[in-house]
What does this fold into?
Amino acid sequence: MDFLLKFGESVRRWPQKEAFCIGKDVFSYQDFAASISAIRSILKNETGRNGQNIVAVIAWDDLYSYAAAFAIWLEGKTFLPLSPRNPATRNNEIVRQTGAELVFSAGPVPRSMLSATHVKIVDVKGLKSSKIHIEPVERNPNDLMYVLFTSGSTGKPKGVQITYANFNAFVKAFLDIGYSFNENDRFLQIYDLTFDASLHCYIVPLTLGASVFTVPWNEVKYMYALRLLQNHELTFAKMPPSTIAFLRPYFPSIRLEKLRYCLFGGEPLDRDLVAEWRQCVPHAMIQNVYGPTEATVNCLQYEVPSDPEKIKHFNGIVAIGKPFGKNRAFVAGKNRNAANPFQKGELCIAGPQVSPGYWKDEEKNREVFFELPSGRKKERWYATGDIVLTDKDGDFLFCGRSDGQVQVQGFRVELGEIEYHTRTYLRAQAVALAKENYLGTQQIHLFVEKCADPVALREFLSRKLPDYMVPSEIISVEQFPLSVSGKIDRKKLYEMI
It folds into this structure.
Protein backbone atom coordinates (compact mmCIF):
# COMPACT_ATOMS: atom_id res chain seq x y z
CA MET A 1 0.00 0.00 0.00
CA ASP A 2 1.14 3.55 -0.82
CA PHE A 3 -0.79 6.14 1.19
CA LEU A 4 0.00 8.86 -1.37
CA LEU A 5 -1.59 6.89 -4.22
CA LYS A 6 -4.66 6.20 -2.07
CA PHE A 7 -4.90 9.91 -1.27
CA GLY A 8 -4.77 10.72 -4.99
CA GLU A 9 -7.69 8.35 -5.55
CA SER A 10 -9.70 10.19 -2.89
CA VAL A 11 -9.09 13.54 -4.62
CA ARG A 12 -10.17 12.18 -8.00
CA ARG A 13 -13.27 10.38 -6.67
CA TRP A 14 -14.55 13.00 -4.24
CA PRO A 15 -13.15 16.42 -5.26
CA GLN A 16 -16.02 18.40 -3.69
CA LYS A 17 -16.33 16.33 -0.55
CA GLU A 18 -15.10 17.89 2.71
CA ALA A 19 -11.56 16.84 3.58
CA PHE A 20 -10.94 19.13 6.57
CA CYS A 21 -13.04 21.02 9.07
CA ILE A 22 -10.67 23.45 10.82
CA GLY A 23 -12.39 25.83 13.21
CA LYS A 24 -15.32 27.35 11.29
CA ASP A 25 -13.73 26.65 7.89
CA VAL A 26 -14.49 23.65 5.70
CA PHE A 27 -12.13 22.62 2.90
CA SER A 28 -12.88 20.15 0.13
CA TYR A 29 -10.45 17.61 -1.32
CA GLN A 30 -10.16 19.96 -4.31
CA ASP A 31 -9.24 22.88 -2.01
CA PHE A 32 -6.64 20.78 -0.26
CA ALA A 33 -5.13 19.49 -3.50
CA ALA A 34 -4.94 23.05 -4.88
CA SER A 35 -2.90 24.20 -1.86
CA ILE A 36 -0.67 21.13 -2.05
CA SER A 37 0.02 21.78 -5.72
CA ALA A 38 0.94 25.43 -5.13
CA ILE A 39 3.35 24.58 -2.31
CA ARG A 40 4.76 21.73 -4.36
CA SER A 41 5.68 24.09 -7.19
CA ILE A 42 7.65 26.23 -4.71
CA LEU A 43 9.37 23.13 -3.40
CA LYS A 44 10.48 22.10 -6.89
CA ASN A 45 12.30 25.41 -7.27
CA GLU A 46 14.07 24.86 -3.96
CA THR A 47 15.40 21.38 -4.81
CA GLY A 48 18.98 20.89 -3.78
CA ARG A 49 19.14 23.46 -1.04
CA ASN A 50 20.17 20.71 1.36
CA GLY A 51 21.58 17.28 0.79
CA GLN A 52 19.22 15.46 3.14
CA ASN A 53 16.11 16.79 1.43
CA ILE A 54 14.69 17.75 4.81
CA VAL A 55 12.05 20.47 4.74
CA ALA A 56 10.77 21.98 7.99
CA VAL A 57 7.20 23.15 8.61
CA ILE A 58 6.03 25.41 11.42
CA ALA A 59 3.16 23.09 12.34
CA TRP A 60 0.13 25.27 13.04
CA ASP A 61 -3.40 23.89 12.95
CA ASP A 62 -4.24 25.22 9.50
CA LEU A 63 -4.85 23.78 6.05
CA TYR A 64 -1.50 24.99 4.75
CA SER A 65 0.56 23.12 7.35
CA TYR A 66 -1.17 19.89 6.34
CA ALA A 67 -0.78 20.79 2.65
CA ALA A 68 2.93 21.52 3.13
CA ALA A 69 3.45 18.06 4.63
CA PHE A 70 1.74 16.38 1.66
CA ALA A 71 3.69 18.52 -0.83
CA ILE A 72 6.92 17.41 0.83
CA TRP A 73 5.93 13.74 0.64
CA LEU A 74 4.72 13.92 -2.96
CA GLU A 75 8.16 15.29 -3.86
CA GLY A 76 9.79 12.38 -2.02
CA LYS A 77 11.37 14.61 0.62
CA THR A 78 11.44 14.48 4.42
CA PHE A 79 8.92 16.28 6.64
CA LEU A 80 10.33 17.97 9.75
CA PRO A 81 7.59 19.54 11.93
CA LEU A 82 8.55 22.37 14.29
CA SER A 83 6.18 23.32 17.06
CA PRO A 84 5.20 27.03 17.25
CA ARG A 85 5.09 26.49 21.02
CA ASN A 86 8.73 25.43 21.23
CA PRO A 87 11.24 28.03 22.39
CA ALA A 88 13.58 29.25 19.66
CA THR A 89 16.52 27.43 21.29
CA ARG A 90 14.82 24.05 20.78
CA ASN A 91 13.70 24.73 17.20
CA ASN A 92 17.16 26.10 16.38
CA GLU A 93 18.77 22.94 17.78
CA ILE A 94 16.50 20.74 15.64
CA VAL A 95 17.28 22.78 12.54
CA ARG A 96 20.99 22.67 13.37
CA GLN A 97 21.02 18.90 13.82
CA THR A 98 19.18 18.17 10.56
CA GLY A 99 20.75 20.85 8.40
CA ALA A 100 17.31 21.99 7.23
CA GLU A 101 17.54 25.16 5.14
CA LEU A 102 13.92 25.57 4.03
CA VAL A 103 10.98 26.28 6.37
CA PHE A 104 7.33 26.53 5.36
CA SER A 105 4.98 28.52 7.56
CA ALA A 106 1.42 29.80 7.26
CA GLY A 107 2.36 33.25 8.47
CA PRO A 108 5.28 35.26 9.88
CA VAL A 109 7.78 33.44 12.08
CA PRO A 110 8.87 35.53 15.10
CA ARG A 111 12.44 35.27 16.42
CA SER A 112 11.04 33.84 19.65
CA MET A 113 10.07 30.75 17.60
CA LEU A 114 13.02 30.39 15.20
CA SER A 115 16.06 32.65 15.09
CA ALA A 116 18.40 30.64 12.85
CA THR A 117 19.69 32.95 10.15
CA HIS A 118 20.73 30.36 7.55
CA VAL A 119 17.20 29.11 6.82
CA LYS A 120 14.85 30.40 4.15
CA ILE A 121 11.31 30.90 5.47
CA VAL A 122 8.48 30.73 2.92
CA ASP A 123 4.98 31.94 3.81
CA VAL A 124 2.49 29.46 2.28
CA LYS A 125 -0.72 30.89 3.73
CA GLY A 126 -3.49 31.19 1.18
CA LEU A 127 -1.55 29.52 -1.65
CA LYS A 128 -3.64 27.72 -4.27
CA SER A 129 -2.99 26.48 -7.78
CA SER A 130 -5.49 26.00 -10.58
CA LYS A 131 -3.36 23.14 -11.91
CA ILE A 132 -3.67 20.10 -9.65
CA HIS A 133 -0.55 17.93 -9.38
CA ILE A 134 -0.83 15.13 -6.84
CA GLU A 135 1.10 12.30 -8.50
CA PRO A 136 4.04 11.27 -6.30
CA VAL A 137 7.56 11.19 -7.68
CA GLU A 138 9.40 7.89 -7.76
CA ARG A 139 11.28 7.27 -4.55
CA ASN A 140 13.02 4.54 -2.61
CA PRO A 141 10.71 3.05 0.07
CA ASN A 142 13.60 3.36 2.53
CA ASP A 143 13.85 7.11 2.04
CA LEU A 144 12.96 9.14 5.13
CA MET A 145 9.33 10.25 5.28
CA TYR A 146 9.64 12.27 8.49
CA VAL A 147 11.87 12.99 11.45
CA LEU A 148 10.18 13.65 14.79
CA PHE A 149 12.20 15.03 17.65
CA THR A 150 11.47 13.80 21.15
CA SER A 151 12.94 14.79 24.48
CA GLY A 152 16.39 13.44 25.26
CA SER A 153 17.63 12.49 28.72
CA THR A 154 20.64 14.76 28.21
CA GLY A 155 18.44 17.75 27.41
CA LYS A 156 19.33 17.47 23.74
CA PRO A 157 16.33 16.48 21.57
CA LYS A 158 16.74 13.25 19.60
CA GLY A 159 15.31 12.76 16.12
CA VAL A 160 13.38 9.57 15.35
CA GLN A 161 13.64 8.67 11.65
CA ILE A 162 10.68 7.00 9.94
CA THR A 163 10.77 5.81 6.33
CA TYR A 164 8.00 5.64 3.72
CA ALA A 165 8.17 1.85 4.06
CA ASN A 166 7.71 2.12 7.85
CA PHE A 167 4.62 4.28 7.53
CA ASN A 168 3.01 2.38 4.66
CA ALA A 169 3.47 -0.80 6.71
CA PHE A 170 1.60 0.86 9.59
CA VAL A 171 -1.30 2.05 7.41
CA LYS A 172 -1.72 -1.40 5.85
CA ALA A 173 -1.49 -3.17 9.22
CA PHE A 174 -4.01 -0.79 10.78
CA LEU A 175 -6.57 -1.11 8.00
CA ASP A 176 -6.14 -4.88 7.91
CA ILE A 177 -7.34 -5.14 11.53
CA GLY A 178 -10.87 -5.18 10.11
CA TYR A 179 -12.44 -1.76 10.65
CA SER A 180 -15.45 -0.98 8.42
CA PHE A 181 -14.36 2.48 7.27
CA ASN A 182 -15.76 4.35 4.27
CA GLU A 183 -15.86 7.86 2.78
CA ASN A 184 -18.68 8.87 5.14
CA ASP A 185 -16.60 8.48 8.27
CA ARG A 186 -15.58 11.55 10.27
CA PHE A 187 -12.28 11.44 12.16
CA LEU A 188 -11.17 13.47 15.17
CA GLN A 189 -7.66 14.96 14.96
CA ILE A 190 -6.75 16.18 18.45
CA TYR A 191 -2.95 15.92 18.31
CA ASP A 192 -0.18 18.44 17.73
CA LEU A 193 1.45 17.89 14.32
CA THR A 194 4.81 17.21 15.98
CA PHE A 195 3.32 14.05 17.54
CA ASP A 196 3.10 10.94 15.37
CA ALA A 197 -0.47 10.10 16.42
CA SER A 198 -1.54 13.12 14.34
CA LEU A 199 -0.31 11.35 11.19
CA HIS A 200 -2.66 8.49 12.00
CA CYS A 201 -5.62 10.84 12.48
CA TYR A 202 -5.32 12.79 9.23
CA ILE A 203 -3.48 10.57 6.75
CA VAL A 204 -5.60 7.43 7.24
CA PRO A 205 -8.95 9.23 6.70
CA LEU A 206 -7.59 11.04 3.62
CA THR A 207 -6.73 7.66 2.05
CA LEU A 208 -10.39 6.67 2.52
CA GLY A 209 -12.10 9.81 1.24
CA ALA A 210 -13.27 10.50 4.80
CA SER A 211 -13.29 13.84 6.68
CA VAL A 212 -10.91 15.21 9.32
CA PHE A 213 -12.08 17.48 12.16
CA THR A 214 -9.21 19.18 13.95
CA VAL A 215 -8.83 20.62 17.43
CA PRO A 216 -6.99 23.99 17.38
CA TRP A 217 -3.82 24.01 19.45
CA ASN A 218 -4.87 27.13 21.38
CA GLU A 219 -8.22 25.71 22.53
CA VAL A 220 -9.07 23.71 25.65
CA LYS A 221 -8.61 20.39 23.90
CA TYR A 222 -10.97 18.14 25.83
CA MET A 223 -13.94 20.56 25.67
CA TYR A 224 -13.39 21.40 22.00
CA ALA A 225 -13.04 17.69 21.16
CA LEU A 226 -16.32 16.96 22.96
CA ARG A 227 -18.12 19.67 20.96
CA LEU A 228 -16.80 18.19 17.71
CA LEU A 229 -17.84 14.69 18.72
CA GLN A 230 -21.33 15.88 19.62
CA ASN A 231 -22.07 18.56 17.01
CA HIS A 232 -20.58 16.80 14.00
CA GLU A 233 -21.41 13.23 15.02
CA LEU A 234 -17.86 11.98 14.53
CA THR A 235 -17.44 8.25 13.96
CA PHE A 236 -13.75 7.77 14.85
CA ALA A 237 -11.79 9.23 17.74
CA LYS A 238 -8.27 8.55 18.89
CA MET A 239 -7.35 10.39 22.08
CA PRO A 240 -4.94 10.37 25.00
CA PRO A 241 -6.73 9.00 28.09
CA SER A 242 -6.23 12.41 29.73
CA THR A 243 -8.92 13.78 27.41
CA ILE A 244 -11.72 11.72 28.90
CA ALA A 245 -10.24 11.99 32.41
CA PHE A 246 -10.92 15.74 32.20
CA LEU A 247 -14.42 15.00 30.86
CA ARG A 248 -15.26 12.59 33.68
CA PRO A 249 -17.47 15.04 35.61
CA TYR A 250 -19.62 15.40 32.47
CA PHE A 251 -20.01 11.67 31.73
CA PRO A 252 -23.68 11.50 32.89
CA SER A 253 -24.66 14.04 30.21
CA ILE A 254 -22.50 12.65 27.37
CA ARG A 255 -23.94 10.20 24.86
CA LEU A 256 -22.15 9.80 21.53
CA GLU A 257 -24.45 7.52 19.56
CA LYS A 258 -22.60 7.85 16.23
CA LEU A 259 -19.08 7.10 17.49
CA ARG A 260 -18.12 3.67 16.10
CA TYR A 261 -14.43 3.47 17.04
CA CYS A 262 -12.75 4.96 20.09
CA LEU A 263 -9.01 4.43 20.46
CA PHE A 264 -6.80 5.45 23.36
CA GLY A 265 -3.02 5.70 23.29
CA GLY A 266 0.02 7.68 24.35
CA GLU A 267 -0.29 7.08 28.09
CA PRO A 268 -1.65 4.41 30.47
CA LEU A 269 -5.42 3.83 30.30
CA ASP A 270 -7.18 3.45 33.65
CA ARG A 271 -9.61 0.50 33.83
CA ASP A 272 -12.27 2.24 35.94
CA LEU A 273 -12.14 5.37 33.77
CA VAL A 274 -12.68 3.51 30.50
CA ALA A 275 -15.42 1.35 32.06
CA GLU A 276 -17.32 4.54 32.94
CA TRP A 277 -16.65 6.04 29.51
CA ARG A 278 -18.29 2.99 27.93
CA GLN A 279 -21.71 4.38 28.92
CA CYS A 280 -21.01 7.52 26.86
CA VAL A 281 -20.21 5.57 23.67
CA PRO A 282 -22.73 2.70 23.62
CA HIS A 283 -22.05 1.64 20.01
CA ALA A 284 -18.29 2.11 19.85
CA MET A 285 -15.52 -0.44 19.71
CA ILE A 286 -13.01 0.72 22.34
CA GLN A 287 -9.34 -0.15 21.91
CA ASN A 288 -6.20 0.56 23.85
CA VAL A 289 -3.33 0.98 21.38
CA TYR A 290 0.38 1.07 22.03
CA GLY A 291 3.33 2.24 20.03
CA PRO A 292 6.45 4.30 20.61
CA THR A 293 7.50 6.81 17.95
CA GLU A 294 10.36 4.43 17.08
CA ALA A 295 7.83 1.77 15.97
CA THR A 296 5.67 4.07 13.80
CA VAL A 297 2.53 5.23 15.55
CA ASN A 298 1.00 1.96 16.88
CA CYS A 299 2.08 -1.65 16.82
CA LEU A 300 0.01 -3.38 19.55
CA GLN A 301 -3.73 -3.17 20.27
CA TYR A 302 -6.23 -4.51 22.79
CA GLU A 303 -10.00 -4.45 22.40
CA VAL A 304 -11.57 -3.43 25.71
CA PRO A 305 -14.45 -5.79 26.67
CA SER A 306 -17.83 -4.26 27.52
CA ASP A 307 -17.88 -6.17 30.84
CA PRO A 308 -15.60 -4.26 33.28
CA GLU A 309 -14.81 -7.49 35.12
CA LYS A 310 -13.26 -8.95 31.98
CA ILE A 311 -10.91 -6.04 31.28
CA LYS A 312 -7.33 -7.24 31.56
CA HIS A 313 -5.14 -4.94 33.61
CA PHE A 314 -2.08 -4.55 35.82
CA ASN A 315 -2.50 -2.25 38.83
CA GLY A 316 -5.60 -0.86 37.15
CA ILE A 317 -3.81 -0.07 33.85
CA VAL A 318 -5.54 -1.65 30.83
CA ALA A 319 -3.61 -4.24 28.82
CA ILE A 320 -1.92 -3.19 25.58
CA GLY A 321 -2.78 -6.50 23.89
CA LYS A 322 -0.98 -8.16 21.03
CA PRO A 323 1.08 -7.01 18.03
CA PHE A 324 -0.88 -6.47 14.82
CA GLY A 325 0.18 -6.69 11.19
CA LYS A 326 3.73 -8.02 10.81
CA ASN A 327 4.90 -6.55 14.11
CA ARG A 328 6.45 -8.89 16.67
CA ALA A 329 7.22 -8.45 20.35
CA PHE A 330 8.82 -10.26 23.25
CA VAL A 331 9.64 -9.66 26.91
CA ALA A 332 13.37 -9.33 27.48
CA GLY A 333 15.08 -10.24 30.71
CA LYS A 334 18.75 -9.75 31.51
CA ASN A 335 21.11 -9.44 28.53
CA ARG A 336 17.99 -9.07 26.34
CA ASN A 337 17.28 -12.77 26.39
CA ALA A 338 13.65 -13.84 26.55
CA ALA A 339 12.27 -13.56 30.08
CA ASN A 340 10.66 -16.54 31.78
CA PRO A 341 6.90 -16.96 31.22
CA PHE A 342 4.77 -14.48 33.21
CA GLN A 343 7.89 -12.62 34.33
CA LYS A 344 8.29 -8.86 34.04
CA GLY A 345 10.82 -7.53 31.58
CA GLU A 346 11.46 -4.94 28.89
CA LEU A 347 9.17 -4.89 25.86
CA CYS A 348 11.10 -5.30 22.61
CA ILE A 349 9.59 -4.84 19.13
CA ALA A 350 10.58 -5.96 15.63
CA GLY A 351 8.99 -5.74 12.21
CA PRO A 352 8.61 -3.44 9.20
CA GLN A 353 7.47 -0.50 11.33
CA VAL A 354 10.68 -0.24 13.39
CA SER A 355 12.68 2.94 12.76
CA PRO A 356 16.10 2.80 11.05
CA GLY A 357 17.35 4.74 14.09
CA TYR A 358 17.96 8.18 15.53
CA TRP A 359 19.25 11.08 13.50
CA LYS A 360 23.06 11.09 13.70
CA ASP A 361 23.14 9.50 17.16
CA GLU A 362 25.02 6.22 16.91
CA GLU A 363 25.53 6.00 20.67
CA LYS A 364 21.77 6.03 21.28
CA ASN A 365 21.21 3.64 18.37
CA ARG A 366 23.59 1.11 19.92
CA GLU A 367 21.81 1.50 23.24
CA VAL A 368 18.25 0.69 22.12
CA PHE A 369 18.48 -1.15 18.77
CA PHE A 370 19.95 -4.66 18.67
CA GLU A 371 19.99 -7.83 16.58
CA LEU A 372 19.02 -11.38 17.40
CA PRO A 373 19.42 -14.52 15.25
CA SER A 374 16.38 -15.41 13.15
CA GLY A 375 17.01 -18.52 11.06
CA ARG A 376 20.05 -17.81 8.90
CA LYS A 377 19.62 -14.07 9.28
CA LYS A 378 19.60 -11.56 12.08
CA GLU A 379 16.52 -9.62 13.04
CA ARG A 380 16.62 -6.03 14.25
CA TRP A 381 14.79 -5.19 17.50
CA TYR A 382 13.94 -2.03 19.40
CA ALA A 383 14.11 -1.98 23.20
CA THR A 384 11.29 0.30 24.31
CA GLY A 385 12.20 0.92 27.96
CA ASP A 386 8.65 -0.13 28.91
CA ILE A 387 8.21 -2.90 31.49
CA VAL A 388 5.58 -5.50 30.63
CA LEU A 389 4.55 -9.08 31.25
CA THR A 390 2.38 -11.47 29.27
CA ASP A 391 -0.65 -13.41 30.46
CA LYS A 392 -1.74 -16.93 29.55
CA ASP A 393 -3.43 -15.65 26.38
CA GLY A 394 -0.29 -13.90 25.14
CA ASP A 395 -1.62 -10.39 25.85
CA PHE A 396 0.94 -7.85 27.00
CA LEU A 397 0.25 -6.03 30.27
CA PHE A 398 1.89 -2.65 30.77
CA CYS A 399 3.62 -2.43 34.16
CA GLY A 400 5.41 0.91 33.88
CA ARG A 401 8.63 2.42 32.60
CA SER A 402 12.02 0.98 33.38
CA ASP A 403 12.68 4.32 35.06
CA GLY A 404 9.33 4.11 36.94
CA GLN A 405 10.86 1.80 39.52
CA VAL A 406 12.83 3.59 42.22
CA GLN A 407 14.74 2.70 45.37
CA VAL A 408 13.32 4.15 48.59
CA GLN A 409 14.97 3.28 51.89
CA GLY A 410 16.59 0.31 50.19
CA PHE A 411 13.24 -1.00 48.91
CA ARG A 412 12.19 -1.26 45.27
CA VAL A 413 9.05 0.82 44.70
CA GLU A 414 6.70 0.71 41.70
CA LEU A 415 5.32 4.23 41.39
CA GLY A 416 2.42 2.84 39.34
CA GLU A 417 1.13 0.95 42.36
CA ILE A 418 0.85 4.19 44.36
CA GLU A 419 -1.02 5.82 41.47
CA TYR A 420 -3.37 2.84 41.20
CA HIS A 421 -4.51 2.97 44.82
CA THR A 422 -4.86 6.75 44.65
CA ARG A 423 -7.05 6.57 41.55
CA THR A 424 -9.16 3.87 43.17
CA TYR A 425 -9.76 6.06 46.24
CA LEU A 426 -10.26 9.46 44.57
CA ARG A 427 -11.56 8.42 41.14
CA ALA A 428 -9.26 11.11 39.77
CA GLN A 429 -5.90 11.35 38.05
CA ALA A 430 -2.73 10.80 40.03
CA VAL A 431 0.99 10.95 39.26
CA ALA A 432 3.69 9.72 41.64
CA LEU A 433 7.23 11.04 41.18
CA ALA A 434 10.45 10.33 43.03
CA LYS A 435 13.04 13.03 43.55
CA GLU A 436 16.27 13.12 45.49
CA ASN A 437 16.26 15.40 48.53
CA TYR A 438 19.14 17.38 50.02
CA LEU A 439 20.25 14.31 51.99
CA GLY A 440 20.64 12.31 48.77
CA THR A 441 17.71 9.97 49.43
CA GLN A 442 14.64 9.46 47.25
CA GLN A 443 11.34 10.97 48.35
CA ILE A 444 7.97 10.22 46.79
CA HIS A 445 5.76 13.13 45.77
CA LEU A 446 2.16 12.44 44.78
CA PHE A 447 0.25 14.83 42.53
CA VAL A 448 -3.53 14.48 42.58
CA GLU A 449 -6.30 16.33 40.84
CA LYS A 450 -8.49 18.46 43.14
CA CYS A 451 -7.74 16.57 46.34
CA ALA A 452 -9.89 18.16 49.07
CA ASP A 453 -8.51 16.09 51.93
CA PRO A 454 -4.84 15.03 51.59
CA VAL A 455 -4.85 13.78 55.20
CA ALA A 456 -7.62 11.28 54.47
CA LEU A 457 -5.82 10.17 51.31
CA ARG A 458 -2.58 9.58 53.20
CA GLU A 459 -4.46 7.54 55.82
CA PHE A 460 -6.01 5.44 53.05
CA LEU A 461 -2.64 4.84 51.38
CA SER A 462 -1.08 3.89 54.70
CA ARG A 463 -3.65 1.09 54.95
CA LYS A 464 -2.83 -0.17 51.46
CA LEU A 465 0.92 0.35 51.21
CA PRO A 466 4.02 -0.23 53.35
CA ASP A 467 5.32 2.85 55.16
CA TYR A 468 8.19 3.43 52.73
CA MET A 469 5.72 3.70 49.81
CA VAL A 470 3.45 6.30 51.40
CA PRO A 471 4.23 9.66 49.72
CA SER A 472 6.10 12.18 51.80
CA GLU A 473 4.18 14.97 50.07
CA ILE A 474 0.73 15.10 48.49
CA ILE A 475 0.23 18.01 46.10
CA SER A 476 -3.25 18.94 44.88
CA VAL A 477 -3.50 20.54 41.42
CA GLU A 478 -6.53 22.09 39.76
CA GLN A 479 -5.57 20.59 36.44
CA PHE A 480 -2.57 18.59 35.30
CA PRO A 481 -0.26 20.36 32.84
CA LEU A 482 -0.29 18.74 29.42
CA SER A 483 2.42 18.36 26.81
CA VAL A 484 1.85 19.19 23.15
CA SER A 485 0.87 15.55 22.62
CA GLY A 486 -1.92 15.82 25.18
CA LYS A 487 -0.14 13.69 27.77
CA ILE A 488 0.47 14.73 31.35
CA ASP A 489 3.65 16.80 31.38
CA ARG A 490 5.76 15.10 34.07
CA LYS A 491 8.69 17.47 33.50
CA LYS A 492 6.55 20.41 34.61
CA LEU A 493 5.40 18.45 37.65
CA TYR A 494 9.02 17.80 38.59
CA GLU A 495 9.61 21.54 38.47
CA MET A 496 6.82 22.00 41.03
CA ILE A 497 8.52 19.83 43.64
Summary: The longest strand covers residues 377-390.
